[in-house]
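Lab notes, practical 5.
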Amino acid sequence: MLTTKEKRILDLAERGGTDKELLILEEISALEDKIEELKQKFTETIKEVKDNAPDLNKVLDSIKGKDSEIPGPQGEKGDKGDDGLQGVQGPRGEKGERGDRGEKGEKGDKGEAGIDGKDGKDGSPDTPEQVRDKLEELKGEERLDITAIKGLEEKIKAIPERPTTTFFGPGKTKIVKIDLSDQLNGVLKTFFLGTHYGIVSVNSSSSPFGAFRESVDYNESGKNIVFTSAIDASVSLAQGQSLIVKVLR
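Output from the prediction step:
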C-alpha cells in the first residue's frame, strides 16, 4: 500500500508536474513529519507532567489533619521548584503590510561649476562615410569588440531564446501570452501564472524597462512570477501600466 507521500508524487507525475513542484512537495512532506514528531513529543510531555503532579487533597490533609477543623500553624516556605520544560514554539505570525512610501526629499542646491578642462586633441579629419569604410576593412583581431558599441550587448541579451527544456515528457513549444495589466496596483509584486514550463519574456509599458531581466528584475517561484527588490512597484507596476508575460506550455 502506497504512503501519502508516494501517492502525491505519483499524482504529480501523472499531471506533468515540474522539478520545482517536486521539490516543494518534498519540503511539505518533511514539514508534516516534523509537525507529527512535535505533536507526539508534546503529548508525552503533558502525560509526564500529570503523572508527576502531587495529589493536592493528600497534601492539604497532611497539613490540616483529618480530624481537626482548625488548621495548624503555617509551615516554612519551601524551596524553589525546578524550571518547567520549554513549551512548543507557536506558529509564525503573518507578514505585516508594507508601510506607506516616504515623502520625496527636497532637491539639493546646485553645485559650483567645475574648472574648465584642457583642450582636447584634434579629431580625425575623416568624414563619417570614410570612418565607416575603414571599420569595414578591419580583419580578424583588428575588428571592434561588441563592447565597443554602447548598448549593443544589452539589446542582444534582451532577445528571448527559444526554450528547449523537457519536463516529464517531450519538449513544449507552445508560447502563451498572459496579460496581467488589470492586476497592477502599485503594491503587488507576485503574480500567478498557472502551470507552465518556463518564462519566455516579461514586457511592460513602464519606462525605462520595457523588457524585464530574469534573476535581476524577476524570478520564478512555482507557478508564480515574483519581482525583485530592484523593481519599484509604485512606478513599474503601477495601476494603468501594462504587464505582458509570455510562458511556455
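Observations recorded by the TA: DSSP finds six helices and six strands in the chain. Helices lie at 4-14, 19-52, 56-64, 128-137, 152-157, 233-236.
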